[in-house]
Structures are given as structure tokens and as C-alpha cells.
Amino acid sequence: MAEVQQPPLNWEASATATHPQVSSTLPPEVETCLKNARFLHLATCDALYPHVSLMNYTYLPSTPYDPGPVIIMTTNPSSKKTLNLINNPRVSLLVHDWVSHRPPTRVPDPTRESSPPPQATRSSLASLLLNINTSALSSISATINGTARIIERGSEEEAWCKERHLENNTFGDQVREEQGMFGAPQNPSSTEGDGGASCFIEGEEVRVMLVGVKEGRIADWKGGVKDWVIVPLEEQNQRGRETMVNGIS
Questions:
Q1: How confident is the model over 32-45, as pLDDT tens digits?
Q2: What is the pLDDT of residues 72-103, one digit of tens each?
Q3: 33-66: string of b/e by CB count within 10 Å (b at 16+)?
Q4: Of the candidates 195, 156, 188, 159, the residue with the CA atom closest to the CA atom of residue 174
Q5: pTM for this one?
Q6: Which of 60, 87, 170, 201 is the most buried (most CB within 10 A)?
């Protein structure tokens, strides 16, 4: 009789979440992904359609104002995502460490524009990066669900979060080098090296948005998934006491 192939231990049907990992902190692989990725995708929703935005962000395991993991972003007060958040603060985020450049297909497509542009392919370093074995780098994608709030304008919390967010999105000379490599005009007068991020963080009209992380799902390149949920230690201890009778579970 042929041996039945068992799914991997982290396998979970994609439409269910029956065995989430419970912790007061993010899973290590999600935290690593958040620390290393440059952008994330933010999904907000009104009464009709989801709205997805590509965002700079800052992940922090806690702040002086929040004991749990949070993600800081900034937004224009009149943007679609801000209006959605006012009506529905529940959001979903996607972050990943996949190599996102689409390699050439087996059959060339004459209608597809070169991406990145020819300037990048002239650099041996760029060629190496673009042709690197993606399977060696790609690992997971993480969907993160949480509740967003717009921080009060002019508050100490807003100033603190803006400062952390700007620190985390200032990259030195790397940004200018990347702009030149991929054909974008370089700005030699810029000394900040933030790729223009400061205007989206420090602008007078910019609002600071904070997402408190609640739960999520990790998906790996083999198709395995793992669900997780953030529960404060105090609540975990309380749940443990509630399931015990005379000190016995």
C-alpha cells in the first residue's frame, strides 16, 4: 500500500485559520521581513471596493504609547486611503521578500517595455542583481491585519512617530545610486538621501497613521501557510487561568 503523503506541519487550508500561533510578539520571520523590505502594500476599504497603496513604513515592536507591535505610515489627509480609514479603520498589509523584477519570458514579448531600462543592464552589478537566482532569496510573504488610527495632530506621539519614521526612511547615498542605475535623474543638491521621503513625512499637511498589528498569515514559496495572532501576555495568562479547575487544566 502506497504511503500517504502528509502535508507539511505548517500547512493550513487557505480559507481557514484553525490553528493560529498565539504570541505577544510577531513571528521571527515576519519581523525579519518587515525589517528588510523597502515598501509594503496597504489595503483599505470603503463600502464598495478595496483600495491598495504602496507605502513607506516603519515597523516597531512597541512604542512609549503602544505596548504591542505597530507599523507607522504617513498619509495625505485628503487621500482615498485616509477617507477609507475614517469610515473603516480595519486594514490589511502585505509585505514580502520576493524578488519582484519580472525576468524575460521564454518567448519574447515585443510589446513589453524593458524593465528596468537599458541603463541598468550596462552595470555588471545591476546585471548580477537582476539575474540572481530568485529561489535563493525568496522566502515568504506576510499578510498582516490590524486596526489603523490617525494620530492627533500636534501631539507628542505624532512628533515621536514622525521622527522614528524619518530615521527609518533615510538611506544615504544608496537612493541616489539606485536612481542613476535605473535611469531616474539624480539630484546632486540633495543631501538627505531619503529619495524624497521627507516631504511625505515632514510636510505640514501630512498625517501620521499607526496600525496596531492584530493577526496575520505567512505564506512560503512552497505553498505552505501559517496563521498567527497577537495576544498580550496578560490576556494569555488570564485565558490559561480560565481553563484550569482547582489548578488543573
A1: 999 999 999 999 99
A2: 999 999 999 999 999 999 999 999 977 666 66
A3: bbeebeebebbbbeeeeeeebebbbbbbeebeeb
A4: 195
A5: 0.73
A6: 201
